[in-house]
Specification:
heterodimer; A: mainly beta; 6-stranded mixed sheet; 5-stranded antiparallel sheet; 0% helix; B: mainly beta; 4-stranded antiparallel sheet; 11 strands; globular
Chain lengths: 112, 111
């Protein structure tokens, strides 16, 4: 199946620091999404990107859809303790299929 | 408002047992998805319904896995003769448009 390579695998940061994580693939995708998953819960959508080159913000979160359509990044500014969790990139391919392909996740720990 | 609910939240099965996992989607959502999430991994697509029609089952790992949504609302994922490698969190998601809303998942442990 399609593979999304997400990095870093884990991050330990001080509260107030900025965070950056990214996702790459050898395949082209039409839609990139970023989700956050808390323990014992399902993923929750943070940001959706539908156009190559698109840069979208949601509060302290900013994400970009790479111009080649093979990558995306997520930035979190001024991290706070509740940012702790696992962040997944996800993408939908060109076939029009509705299912999502997910990355392996970035586990974020924020040290107060 | 009510989100996607799944039951049971936790299931322990002995190898060889059959299990049934239930998903109650958001009311009115046409599309329903099942994903399997192994420990430390991202979710992987299993199958997709539009109303009662199962339009894509390409992700089901073997013929021991079966899903249904007979009235276009509640869905059940059944796993027959469970194996240890079936241990995972099974996530259900529903959508009306682009965004998929996920339930909390059922954690299946096969001993």
């Amino acid at each position: 199946g399609q593979q999304l390579n997400q990095s870093p695998q884990s991050m330990f940061i001080q509260e107030g620091e900025d965070v950056s994580m990214n996702c790459t693939s050898s395949s082209i995708f039409n839609t990139w999404l970023w989700y956050k998953q808390d323990p014992g819960e399902g993923p929750v959508l943070l940001i959706a990107l539908y156009k190559a080159g698109e840069l979208t913000s949601n509060g302290r979160l900013t994400a970009q859809f790479g111009i080649t359509r093979k990558d995306s990044f997520l930035n979190i500014s001024a991290s706070i303790p509740s940012d702790v969790g696992i962040y997944f990139c996800a993408a939908r391919d060109q076939t029009g299929a509705n299912n999502l392909f997910f990355g392996t996740g970035t586990r974020l720990t924020v040290i107060p | 408002g009510a989100g996607v609910s799944q039951s049971p939240r936790y299931k322990v099965a002995k190898r060889g047992q059959d299990v049934a996992l239930r998903c109650d989607p958001i009311s009115g959502h046409v599309s329903l998805f099942w994903y399997q999430q192994a420990l430390g991994q991202g979710p992987e697509f299993l199958t997709y319904f539009q109303n009662e029609a199962q339009l894509d089952k390409s992700g089901l790992p073997s013929d021991r896995f079966f899903a249904e949504r007979p009235e276009g609302s509640v869905s059940t994922l059944k796993i027959q003769r469970t194996q240890q490698e079936d241990s995972a969190v099974y996530l259900c998601a529903s959508s009306q448009g682009e965004e998929q809303f996920f339930g909390p998942g059922t954690r299946l442990t096969v001993l």
